[in-house]
Amino acid sequence: MAADASARAMPSANAAAAVPVCSKTHPSRSLRVLYVVSFLDLFAVSLIIPSLASYIKGMDGGAMLFGFIMSMYGFIQFFSAPIAGSLSDVYGRRTVLLVCMLGAACGYFMLALSWNIYIVILSRIPSAMFKHTLDLIKVAITDGEEPANRSAAVGRLNAVSNAGFIVGPMIGGYVSSFPNGFNYTALLTTLIFGVNYVLISLYYLDGTTMAMTKKADDPASAPHPDWRQIMAEAMSKVFEFKNALYETGPAKTLLLARLLLAMSAILYRSHFSVMLEDKFGTDSRARGMLLGYMGFVGAVGSASVGLALKWIPSERMLLQLSSVVYVVTFFALSQAATLQGIYIMLVPQIIAIRCCEIAWVAWISICLRRSPSVLFEQALSRYRQLWWPTNALAHSWVSRLRLRYDC
């Protein structure tokens, strides 16, 4: 769900630069363990995706309640992500990562032991508050790499974590197909977060943590954060997405168009499992296989962008062609009558969206004549979290209309 794998508004670039790089001590072990943790993180989260919606519906939680739970998750993350980032600037990435791992594990453990819908709702609160692990890992990776190597490091991190999303739904769907399978799946998710906690605590040290360890005997050297300033910085990060509105010319048009493209993707894919169950009567195993298939096609699509650019003369033309394919495949998916048709139409759609995402960044960088990553990621991440509540409620409203029409 929230598996989604997008960077949120986390620590600022200036704060990241102020942290001593961890590559000076135990470079390979400290950084390589983060790649392992990122794979396990997205793998664990994606385990519950194929069956969470049906689990909620099985507890007499209708479409409206499912929408409310998703809205609550996005609303909490909207405010908690900047706070987690600001705290990591003060206490170090490792400390906040450990707290987030522990908090997320508690949330999934509550979900595994839930026996009614109220416990399910309660379990999503700690998960939303603390599930900022991938964002913190991405910042920790950039802290530990030289500036020239950071883009390649983030690319490797995305590839490794996305591999977890390929395997996770298939295993989660298989386990969920057994009696009480969803509860076992959530327990497995909790266990994996526990493993990540151990890996971080044993093998990862960032610069801030190392400095605090050396001065542990000196109470005056301990951090004394100004909570008022931390909260002020966090709230400023919450609304950083509005910076896109101050761009002029083609840059503003490109950024707003990219947000609209993200809106369509989130609206469709966030409830993809519900559509598979309601329209095609699929079980959790079939949904998990299809979601894993989507992850694999997405990886192939990302790798195929370079080949596409060899045949298409410009990023602008690639964007135009990919957008047309995206619209056509959305319409075809809405009219698909069989699951085989879904499998076929997902190939051009996912490849098109990958081409769009990569071509957007390249073209925006040309229009802005500078790196678009900070502005673009702030705008997109804030937008995603704002759109989750609206998206979930819109889905519940459409579901109620469909049920009324069917009756």
TrEMBL record:
Membrane-spanning residues: 33-56, 62-84, 96-121, 184-205, 253-270, 290-312, 324-345
SUPFAM superfamilies assigned: MFS general substrate transporter
Keyword Transferase listed: no
Domain Major facilitator superfamily (MFS) profile positions: 30-407
Signal sequence extent: none
Principal place of residence: membrane
Keywords: Membrane, Transmembrane, Transmembrane helix
Entry protein name: Major facilitator superfamily (MFS) profile domain-containing protein
Organism (species): Lagenidium giganteum
